[in-house]
Amino acid sequence: MKRNGVQFTINHNTEFKIQFTEDGLKRYNNLNYLEKPVALDKSDEETRIFYFDCSDMQFRNYFAHFYDEMEVLEPKEMREHLLRLGQRMVDKYSKDI
Fold first, then answer.
1. Among 8-17, 27-36, 48-57, which stretch is predicted with the lowest mean pLDDT?
2. Which of 11, 21, 67, 70 has its CA 20 to 30 Å from the CA of residue 30?
3. Residue 76, helix vs strand vs coil
4. What is d(CA 52, CA 18) in angstroms, rounded to the nearest whole number?
5. How far apart are CA 78 and CA 55, in angstroms?
6. Rounded distance, CA 7 to CA 60, Å?
7. pLDDT value at position 10?
8. How far is 85 from 79, CA to CA, in rounded Å?
9. 4 vs 40, 53, 57, 58, 87, CA distance in Å?
């Protein structure tokens, strides 16, 4: 609760492993919202691979606007969720193109 905020204490925490693009890392370093997940010490700025221990809700709320400026490497369930979400978006927006 101290690290991730009181609003996310009702959800279980998951360790997320992501890789930022250069622009994504700049965005992460410059956006300081209250619900910003705190990077774990094993994160590496050089490889832009970061680890976060936070709830799914916190992860989705904070990183939703990063779009293709990051890639979720783990957990597999979040990768699958983003793939399904992306496919629904492609289906929706490709109708009129």
1. 8-17
2. 11
3. helix
4. 8
5. 12
6. 13
7. 53
8. 10
9. 12, 9, 11, 8, 30
Q: Is the pLDDT of residue 1 over 60?
A: no
Dump pLDDT digits (tens) for 44-89: 999 999 999 998 888 998 999 999 999 999 999 999 999 999 999 9
Q: Of 45, 77, 41, which is closest to residue 59 (Cα–Cα)?
A: 77
Tokens of 34: 């209250």
Dihedral angle at the C-alpha atoms of 46, 51, 57, 60, nearest 10 degrees?
A: 30
| CA dist., res. 44 & res. 56, Å (int) | 22
70 DSSP β-pair partners: 20
